[in-house]
Prior knowledge:
With about 425 residues, the protein is α+β, with helices and mostly antiparallel strands. The protein is built from eleven helices and 16 strands. α5 (about 225-240) crosses α6 and α7 crosses α9 (about 345-355).
Amino acid sequence: MNTTFNTTSTSSAVSLRPIARGGVTSAQGFTAAGVHAGFRKNPGRADLALVVADRPVAAAGVFTTNRFCAAPVQVSREQLGGIEHGYGTMRAVVINSGNANAATGEPGLAIARETCGVVADALGCKAGEVLVASTGVIGVPLDIEPFEQGVPQAAAALSREGAHDAARAIMTTDTHAKEYAVAYESTAPGFEGCAFTVGGMCKGSGMIMPNMATMIAVITTDAPVQPAALHEILLSQVRVTFNKVTVDSDSSTNDTCVIFASGDAAQGVALIEQGTPAYAELCQAVHAVCEKLARAIAADGEGASKLVTVNVHGAATEADADTAARSVANSPLVKTAIAGHDCNWGRIAAALGKCGVPFDQSRVDIDIMGMPVCRAGLTVPFDEAEALRRFEEPEIVIEANLGAGTCSTTVWTCDLTHEYVSINADYRS
């Protein structure tokens, strides 16, 4: 099935085709692998992923704003020109699970940098062309030996069929691998008829309320893009996808989202620049992949049984809309009510009222699963049996109109169950 998105005024609509079993190697010019390197005790569980471009390509990244940021975040930022830059030319990204290499001081930084060298040796590239990411337990020293063992093994296993192994290798408490890809045919001047692909993988289930991206995400495309333009695409789409996810309101120390562009689908043409029709098309494709992965994170929240979509309308500013939506999405009372199939709109009203956003309660409307439950700040009678029936759906949608302006936003979260406590009580065991 094709999905049509409207682009900006610089381009007509672009038709995106989801790729069956698509992932991070769906775009031309990329291979991947996932292996067991020894970061985890279970020898049957992959714990090291490698995603590699056939040659050095345009790359960009965004990272956590957590001030306890992990060593691999600091090193990858350096590789991409520092916190004020965020893009460059890269060959690969290596990701380990099971150990975050966070709060590990100078030894952790040394290991992250040494890891880039291990990958460079295995691929025959420069250490400065390698990005590194880690996920797992915070505050535990990380050894280089698993990288020395696993990276050559992963390099030998690289293939376009290795995307799923890579996606599984970066999982922590995720219940399944998260992958997606789309293709489209460009109608932009200079690129007419070119078939481009955007694919990606991510991991994330707990410690999720990013302020940059998600736990770990890798996006690839075979469109030809200038590195600076690629960075702007990533920033713009992360803001409205990965940055709109919250599972438990905790931003990770390791959040990393990187994108690579090989240009292999249209060699010998001019690079896509910001503000052009081709740029607008690519933005739509990156958005589709990032949104699909972001929703997958929310749906797979630790212990979750429901994906929850919170739509806030009628806010005075975009920032107000975001604050109000996050207050609802992060409310333990709202999340537990959803877990209990309780259509308790009063908890939503309370979450809106506590968030500090100015509005007049007498102008607020609230709907749950398409049912009006509050109008002008007052209760609306509804059928409790019908509410229970609608709560059987896998996605619960909450709509709130603040009646204070014209700005809107969407935030994705999940319900809060007993299983969340069990998972996090036993996380280090």
